[in-house]
Write a structure and sequence with these properties.
heterodimer, A: alpha+beta, B: alpha+beta
């Protein structure tokens, strides 16, 4: 602390957490071995849809090292895995919520559906014994294609005879129909938003232990939100009181959404750990990750955009079929609805929008939020159809966007959101400059001389982050609050431990949050420690997803820090014999206004813990405050991405030559970390655009079930990105002005890439290429256009 | 089960393990060197990369018996005991070449092999050289920057 301390916020300080990661001394769930450790292995269904006639575990039970084998019969009376968001259909009926059993009951419904848990002295023995379990399956027809699921004639669940989970809509249909009736032009676009498999490099893992001494459970888990996990598992499935279940998410190796959910595996482990009286560990093999992690995206959509004679958007009509997979995962139902349809205004002042979403069950793995979650689907739709419309109307693609930008804030969209602030021209103009769009024709000419087709594509995205105002979320169907919690524990020496309900699994909170606290309290960065990921330490938390941690979790921390300062003023007033109203706090010192009398933050902390001269009659000793922050609105990060590709028409290979991202995230705490978040998001978005696609065959076998078959972006698949975060428009309703940056890259990049490919191939007559735009698909599109 | 002798991080060890024990299993479960991670089952991700005789090897794809007599170096073996960092580790930290940290030890071991055996590698060569290591967080750009930075430091024989 010094009078002239340079603020930490806004500086690219190196990450506090990195020493342990670069030295291999982090502690991930699979690194933990408990005394008397046992190991679990899940026998999974090899069939997409089958009746379970019988399960014979006798031979397996007597295999070496086997301690126990459990099936659904043993779990009788245990609840199903709940869905945290209730959606109502247009007719007012609640969504169909068939039971999602921990272990398959009566039927298996996707390849990978867990059937039995084998517990043994070693992982090897558990796996070997599982091969001895004899399951008699009666194979049933599988429903794989979401578009025809409702008419397939085969039902996955009795509760949903047509496999429809819900048919939901948002927007004023009559107004949209009226606008289309008077439109000068209508552009239509049908597409599939490809199904993705998240693939955090650390596979899911769990280690569950029951302690008879305290009659309580401890679960180490690869989780993005340990408190939510505890609540769902304890209250809704196993009937365990929360104070008897501690969930610890230690170092977690990436999540991207896939580690939000309550899964069957950890639930079965917690239940079984008491039965056998020993801790049980399970770590997914990568093949299991492919089969059983919640997948992402998987929309089949038709969209229509109505425009007037001047190129103003009149209305947007969207019809989407969303694949839920075999069961409803924890947040599955809100992704294609609340996080998709509400984003369909994008950056545009489209007066009327209607979106209908039919969610269907299929014999595939459950589908839930994956980085962006609904917002990439909305952005892809909008930004592709806008460029298609521009081509059809022979209007510049940038020009058409400018004609329709929202320019006054706050702006209430016709799909339920109110954007508090933004400046879309600013990010667009800067992106065009950074991308050297003026130089594009010359670059295209050079490519042409080499027999290559060069194209440029744009995407102007918006997202809703800072999830979520609890009251609004509740009205929309959320079954939980969406606030965040924090505790600031000031130690007698003035050092601070911050307990946050946000969870860091790569985002760098241990650094970013410390920067925020150090500035607020005027203390050194090294005097602040961030603790997260343990329900036994952290008071409460909703966890990390939806780019919410800084905007919501950071705001809770600020609120707690301000309570500390408020109490510190009272203590200082007493010590300095001044009125509380005369005490000013800045740069880590409490001063009597207009004098040189002051107490440092550390002196106040010491006085609070050694209250010899202290107003004990009116003030408690100690310096420790909690805060809960419930955001009044969502935050709305936005920006423009520009992609330039070179396509070889002979091979269909598309190579990204340049990629420029210009974002408005409001206040940026650590530019280095923010840029890293954008880079990572771009890599995942470009993966969706060019490489990644989940494929089941018609029998429901996962064809892309390994890293050999499913193409994750590798270092040589990607270019160097040009990324800039503009000073922008800080969020107007949280104390930091932060909007969130974790998902933008994955949201904005797929349409930019595909628009660039279409631009490159437009001279050959190609109108559309579907994602992922593999060389084969591009080559086919070229051949189809030629013939 | 005949004993297998090898060197791990400069220390001679004799292993008594089942014949089908993988090197990574031995490192993680027998020696409790948990800095080496397992991310897949197809030798695709590279999180388990260690150095065998100075060359980057995916330790999930090698039997312990195959490395009898070899010198193995893991992430723990390149970390100075005094709390400082190897130039490659320091460069990853300085360039924000990691986020969740799970792929990082394998990435660092591959990168050390790369710069040791390819002087003055270009960005493109580094991208090609790291093709065997998956990172889902960073988009690789900062990893490439870190390897460039570390290469200069290692060529100077000093710290970045």
């Amino acid at each position: 602390m010094s009078a002239a301390q340079v603020p930490y916020v806004g500086r690219s300080v190196e990450r506090k957490e990195d020493y342990r990661f670069v030295t291999g001394s982090g502690t991930y769930t699979d690194d933990i071995v408990l005394p008397r450790q046992t190991y679990g292995y899940f026998l999974r269904s090899p069939h997409a849809h089958a009746a379970l006639r019988s399960i014979d575990t006798r031979a397996a039970s007597s295999a070496p090292g086997v301690l126990a084998i459990y099936t659904a019969r043993d779990l009788a009376g245990i609840g199903g895995l709940p869905c945290g968001w209730l959606i109502h259909s247009i007719d007012g009926s609640p969504m169909k919520e068939p039971k999602h059993p921990v272990l398959a009951e009566g039927k298996v419904r996707y390849v990978g559906d867990p059937v039995a848990l084998v517990v043994a002295e070693s992982a090897r023995e558990a796996k070997a014994a599982a091969a001895l379990i004899e399951v008699d399956y009666e194979v049933l027809p599988a429903v794989i294609d979401s578009a025809s699921a409702a008419s397939s004639g085969t039902a996955l669940h009795e509760e949903a005879p047509d496999n429809v989970c819900f048919t939901w809509a948002l927007g004023d249909q009559a107004a949209v129909d009226a606008a289309f009736a008077k439109a000068a032009h209508v552009t239509r676009f049908s597409f599939a938003n490809n199904r993705l498999i998240p693939n955090a490099i650390e596979p899911r893992a769990a280690n569950a232990q029951y302690s008879p001494a305290s009659d309580s459970y401890t679960l180490y888990l690869t989780s993005q939100n340990p408190h939510v996990e505890r609540l769902l598992m304890g209250a809704f499935v196993l009937g365990l009181p929360e104070h008897k279940l501690r969930v610890i998410a230690p170092d977690v190796g990436g999540g991207f959404g896939s580690k939000i959910y309550l899964y069957a595996e950890e639930t079965a482990l917690v239940w079984a750990s008491r039965r056998i009286g020993r801790p049980i560990k399970w770590t997914a093999e990568r093949s299991e990750s492919f089969l059983s992690d919640a997948h992402g995206r998987d929309h089949v959509t038709t969209a229509e955009l109505a425009l007037d004679g001047e190129g103003k958007f009149l209305a947007l009509r969207v019809d989407t079929i969303a694949n839920m997979g075999a069961y409803l995962s924890t947040f599955a139902s809100c992704i294609p609805t609340i996080l998709h349809a509400t984003l369909l205004a994008g950056q545009y002042a489209t007066p009327h929008i209607h979106c209908r979403v039919r969610a269907v069950f299929t014999n595939t793995a459950p589908v839930d939020a994956y980085r962006g979650a609904g917002r990439p689907e909305a952005t892809y739709l909008l930004e592709r159809i806008v460029e298609l419309a521009a081509r059809e109307l022979k209007v510049g693609r940038i020009e058409l966007r400018r004609r329709n930008f929202i320019r006054t804030f706050p702006y209430a969209t016709p799909v339920g959101l109110t954007y508090d602030t933004g400046d879309y021209e600013a990010t667009l103009d800067r992106a065009l400059e950074l991308a050297d769009v003026r130089g594009f024709p010359a670059r295209r000419e050079r490519s042409e001389q080499q027999g290559l087709k060069r194209g440029i594509g744009y995407a102007c995205y918006i997202e809703a982050c800072g999830i979520a105002p609890s009251a609004i979320a509740g009205r929309l169907g959320a079954r939980a609050g969406m606030f965040e919690a924090a505790e600031l524990r000031v130690h007698p020496t003035g050092k601070v431990t911050v307990f946050t309900g946000s969870h860091s699994h790569g985002q760098g909170h241990e650094t970013t949050f410390a920067q925020v606290v150090a500035d607020r309290l005027g203390i050194a960065l090294e005097d602040v420690e961030i603790e997260h990921g343990d329900t036994g330490k952290v008071l409460f938390g909703m966890g990390t997803y939806g780019s919410r941690s800084l905007a919501v979790g950071g705001s809770a921390i600020i609120k707690a820090a301000d309570k500390i300062i408020a109490k510190g003023r009272k203590i200082a007033a007493h010590l300095l014999e001044a009125g509380e109203e005369d005490i000013q706090f800045s740069q880590g010192a409490f001063r009597v206004a207009g004098t040189d009398r002051a107490k440092t933050f550390a002196e106040i902390a010491l006085a609070a813990y050694v209250p010899h001269h202290y107003p004990l009659e009116t003030l408690e000793p100690g310096l420790n405050e909690n805060a809960f922050y419930d955001p009044p609105n969502f935050t709305f990060p936005a920006g423009t991405y520009v992609c330039e590709v070179e396509v070889d028409p002979r091979t269909g290979v598309a190579r990204i030559d340049r990629f420029t991202a210009c974002d408005d995230f409001g206040t940026v705490v650590n530019p280095m970390i923010v840029e890293g978040q954008v880079q990572g998001g771009l890599a995942q978005g470009i993966g969706q655009a060019l490489l990644e696609g989940c494929h089941y065959n018609e029998d429901g076998q996962l064809l892309t079930g390994s890293l050999v078959d499913y193409a994750l972006p590798r270092a040589d698949d990607l270019p160097d990105f040009v990324i800039e975060t503009v000073r922008g428009t800080p969020c107007t309703h949280n104390p930091l002005g932060a909007k969130g940056c974790g998902e933008a890259g994955a949201i904005g990049s797929p349409p930019a890439v595909l628009n660039a490919i279409v631009d490159a191939l437009a001279p050959l007559g190609v109108r559309d290429v579907q994602m992922p735009a593999t060389p084969y698909r591009i080559w086919q599109a070229i051949q189809a256009a030629r013939s | 089960m005949s004993p297998i002798s090898l060197s791990v991080n400069g220390k001679a060890v004799t292993a008594a393990a089942e014949p089908d024990t993988l090197l990574v299993t031995y490192l993680r479960e027998h020696l409790r060197l948990t800095g080496t991670h397992v991310g897949c089952d197809t030798a695709s991700c590279g999180a388990c990369t260690v150095l065998v005789g100075g060359l980057a090897v995916k330790s999930c794809n090698v039997l312990l018996a195959q490395v009898a007599g070899e010198e193995i170096t893991t992430i723990e073996g390149i970390t100075p005991a005094d709390g400082s960092l190897h130039p490659m580790q320091a460069a990853f930290k300085a360039c924000h070449g990691l986020q969740c940290g799970f792929c990082t030890p394998g990435m660092i071991m591959s990168a050390i092999d790369l710069v040791t055996h390819h002087e003055h590698a270009t960005r493109e060569q580094i991208r090609a050289g790291l093709e065997g290591n998956l990172c889902r967080c960073t988009g690789y750009q900062n990893i490439v920057a870190a390897v460039m930075r570390a290469a200069q430091a290692m060529e100077r024989g000093g710290r970045p």
